[in-house]
Specification:
Number of domains: 1
Oligomer: single chain
CATH topology: Transferase(Phosphotransferase), domain 1
CATH superfamily: Transferase(Phosphotransferase) domain 1
Radius of gyration: 15 Å
Order of helices and strands: HHHHHH
């Protein structure tokens, strides 16, 4: 979306999305464009922030060739209110919306947090 450099860690991100979809039967992110308000990529970045928390390294979000279209200089997503730094609702979503048991929700949350990290270097590797 921001056209930053990426590597095989993108496959780990995809794995996290696929596991979510297998467990829940729903797409993890379903961004929408709202003309006059925001673009689809901006909404997608905001949905990611809402799920895993905002990126803690604004320079990472600003590193892409298209960052200026979607990201403010402080690293927040354009046309959206910033998400609080402690906002990480994965566990609660699994328990409250999908009725998973505590140990299932904890395990999945831990797994997905290691797959769905903003910065590629913070994600699990295939090793």
């Amino acid at each position: 979306m921001i056209r930053a450099k990426y590597d095989e860690s993108a496959d780990i991100w995809s794995l996290g999305c696929t596991v979510w979809e297998l467990v829940t039967g729903r797409l993890l992110f379903k961004p929408k464009k709202e003309p006059g308000k925001h673009g689809k990529n901006q909404h997608h970045l905001h949905l990611i922030s809402e799920l895993i928390g905002p990126c803690q390294n604004p320079s990472f979000l600003r590193s892409g060739k298209r960052s200026d279209k979607h990201v403010n200089p402080n690293g927040s997503i354009k046309n959206f209110e910033p998400v609080p730094a402690d906002h990480r609702p994965l566990y609660n979503i699994f328990v409250e919306r999908f009725r998973l048991r505590d140990f299932e929700a904890r395990g999945l949350t831990d797994f997905l947090n290691k797959c769905l990290a903003w910065e590629p270097k913070e994600r699990w590797t295939a090793d």
